[in-house]
Amino acid sequence: MLRLIGLCLVLITAGLVHLLDPFSFINALPLWVPFKLELIFWTGIFEFNLAIGLMVRRTRLATAMVTAAYFTLLVPVHVYVSWFAIPMFGVQDPSLLWARTAFQAVFIAWAWSLRKM
After folding, report:
1. Are 1 and 104 in contact (CB under 8 A)?
2. For the chain, what are the domain ranges?
3. Residue 53 CB partners (closer than 8 Å, separation 6+)
């Protein structure tokens, strides 16, 4: 149950940051990505919905798989940020950025593990 609550809190926090400080994420997206602010806004809404879906037992299995897929889809964004040493929330040290990219595997596994709850 703590794993479930923990990931829901991570998703809600991420969703809030996306909605309250969307400009923090602008540089994480390549120049060719259109509608950056809109994408960041909808990502925050999506993260709230993932948290809700995980909390509902009936939708938890499907939502856990979608959440794992979502975290997987974020890997290229984290690689982009790490590769170009783009500062995120004041962090610019390449080793810390790459560590955050690698940590994405923890989020993927965490979401995937909730399928069995």
Report:
1. no
2. 2-116
3. 59, 60, 62, 63, 66, 67
Residue 116 has pLDDT above 90, yes or no: no
What was the pLDDT predicted at 14? 97
Mean pLDDT rounded to a whole number for the chain: 96
Nearest alpha carbon to residue 107 among 60, 84, 73, 82: 73
Task: Provide the residue type at 104 as one letter.
Answer: Q
Burial 71-84 (b: 16+ CB within 10 A, else e): beebeebbeebbee
Q: How much is the average pLDDT of 37-60?
A: 97
Cβ atoms within 10 Å, residue 55: 13
Number of C-beta neighbours around residue 26 at 10 A:
13
